[in-house]
Design goal:
Distance between the termini: 12 Å
Oligomer: single chain
Number of helices: 16
Number of strands: 20
Strand content: 15-25%
Bound molecules: ligand NA7
Shape: globular
Radius of gyration: 23 Å
Largest sheet: 8 strands, mixed
Structural class: alpha/beta
């Protein structure tokens, strides 16, 4: 007998739904969460302007029609406070908190070969046994804080966007430095600029951003979606990234198969509509460099038309493939650089040497500031998993098993780690999709799998080596047909010094779901199941 059937690590959207699912199936579970509230990514990322880049009518659970009917989103893209409120609503509605231990970090999980159970320990002194462990630790939850000399000497305030203080940061009357220009910075910079007296942005790689065109939700649109919510969800699941079924029509042609005027017209339409769907206007923007370059040039010209100082504009113009780093969605980002008190520093030309007591020192200038905002992203996909000391069969450490990059079967299981599941793990579509849809698909699959094992009195399930090897090859092969591996993105782990460069997520949601369903149908093909 174990203390619980399942330990769930993390109470974000994955952990919460896993808990709910397990309860429904009659399994006992305990969930541990580092934060003092639910929401995961949406608990920690409370920086100014934090907002989901997937539309709110889509970025929500679809497992309970009452829930999706009763919840009212107010804007096209939900802001962080509203998503956090939604997470709290879900926790209350399904009475999830009683099985969640908050403010507690799972430090270790060790598989006992003899009893075929997991022993899970926490930093609060918990030590419990479980038949299964589900890692619902999130893909963008382990903050990447750069190791810049002198960080601890700075006399002012610092904050990382992914670990934003609950009480916020007061920028009024302050000189502010923002380091990093990814999605988080692009959302935060226009708002910080509104609040502070002087803003200096330190940019390593310029990013492409398309307008969000956020607005209050149209009640007629909401009513229409809610009248057929399940059809809407099903249509989105057929999309490559599991969202966007209602985007304005693109074309089934390639970028270079149409005239310049037609190409501009298609891109104009998507630009006016706003949002991530911009990149899907043509079928091949992520497939051939020539096609991509045309789409990239369209955005580069937009940047040049918005930013008045030509030198600043050129510094903001990205050179890499568009979409290779995740496309950003902005509200007034480029225009912010037209403001007198906003400055851009290209740290490729003048690298940051150190942080001093008074600010940021580059090779050619020192910038005195009161606040430094690190918008430097995450140790994505593997960071939070490897932060837990996970030991599988024969004491094998996950950190060692993954020393040359993560290897999984379906992004759900790992050879050598029986009865351990990763939700939206590397090797699954995960961050390249609407995360909530991917999370639900994983939770449902894991729940069904546990019920299957129980029904047949099976004790363990573990990915087999041939299945895992084949899967890793497949994930890499799919990526290699695209332009995704061509830049230093966090999809590749290239943003974290020393991290092995491997393209971690799988492209293409619908075929992935088909594969997972087939594996389950075929008695968990590719997994070894052992009797009790
Ligand atoms: P991102 O997209 O990883 O952006 C981090 C930014 O910080 C990016 O511009 C980085 O430049 C920069 N960075 C990282 N390390 C350093 C150092 N050491 N010095 C200077 N600049 C640095 O993280 P976000 O939080 O913005 O967004 C993450 C995801 O959340 C996003 O894709 C959405 O899915 C939501 P680089 O590009 O690496 O040169």
């Amino acid at each position: 007998m174990t203390d619980v059937d399942v330990v769930v690590v993390g109470a974000g959207f994955a952990g919460m739904y896993m808990l709910h699912k397990l309860r429904g199936l009659g399994f006992s579970a305990r969930c541990f969460e580092v934060g003092d509230g639910v929401g995961g990514t949406w608990y920690w990322n409370r920086y100014p302007g934090a907002r989901c880049d997937v539309e709110s009518m889509e970025y929500s659970y679809g497992f309970d029609d009452d829930l999706q009917q009763e919840w009212q989103w107010t804007e096209r893209y939900a802001p962080q406070p509203e998503i956090e409120a939604y997470a709290n609503h879900v926790a209350d509605r399904y009475d999830l908190r009683k099985d969640i231990t908050f403010s507690t970090r799972v430090t270790g999980a060790t598989f006992d070969d003899t009893t075929e159970t997991w022993r899970v320990t926490t930093d609060s002194g918990d030590d419990l046994s479980a038949k299964f462990v589900v890692m619902a630790t999130g893909c963008l939850s382990s903050a990447n804080l750069p190791d810049i000399e002198g960080m601890d000497t700075f006399a002012g305030e610092t904050a990382h966007t992914g670990r934003w203080p609950k009480d916020g940061v007061d920028f009024a009357g302050k000189r502010v430095a923002v380091i990093g220009t990814g999605s988080s910075a692009i959302q935060a910079i226009p708002i910080i600029a509104d609040q502070c007296t002087e803003l200096t942005v330190f940019q390593r790689t310029p990013n492409y951003a398309v307008p969000a065109r956020n607005a209050p939700l149209d009640p007629a649109y909401v009513a229409d979606v809610k009248a057929n919510y399940n059809d809407f969800r099903e249509a989105n699941k057929l999309m490559a990234a599991a969202f966007g079924s209602r985007l304005p029509a693109g074309t089934d042609k390639g970028v270079l198969e149409v005239s310049d005027e037609d190409r501009t017209a298609v891109l104009d339409k998507r630009w006016e509509h706003g949002g991530l769907g911009f990149l899907g206007a043509f079928v091949d923007a992520m497939l051939t460099p020539e096609a991509n370059e045309k789409v990239a040039d369209y955005v580069r010209d937009k940047i040049r038309s918005i930013v008045k100082d030509p030198e600043v504009a050129e510094t903001l113009v990205p050179k890499q493939v568009i979409g290779c780093k995740r496309l950003c969605v902005d509200t007034g980002y480029y225009d912010t650089f037209n403001r007198e008190h906003v400055h851009l520093v290209d740290i490729n030309k003048a690298p940051i040497q150190r942080i001093t007591e008074s600010g940021v020192q580059t090779v050619d200038q020192s910038y005195d500031v009161d606040v430094i905002v690190f918008a430097t992203g995450f140790d994505a996909m593997t960071g939070a998993l490897l932060a837990v000391d996970i030991k599988g069969r024969d004491g094998l450490a996950l950190r060692d098993a993954w020393s040359a990059g993560p290897r999984t079967y379906l992004g759900l299981g790992v050879v050598g780690f029986p009865n351990l599941f990763t939700i939206s793990g590397p090797g699954s579509p995960s961050v390249l999709t609407n995360m909530i849809v991917s999370i639900q698909q994983h939770v449902d699959w894991i729940g069904d799998c546990l019920a299957y094992l129980r029904e047949r009195n099976l004790s363990t399930i573990e990915a087999t080596l041939p299945a895992q090897d084949e899967w890793v090859d497949y994930v890499n092969a799919v990526a290699s047909f695209t332009l995704f591996p061509t830049c230093n993105s966090w999809y590749l782990g290239a943003n974290v010094p020393g991290k092995t460069r491997v393209f971690m997520p799988l492209l293409g949601y619908p075929p992935y779901v088909e594969k997972c369903d087939q594996v389950a149908r075929d008695n968990y093909e590719g997994f070894a199941l052992s009797p009790a």
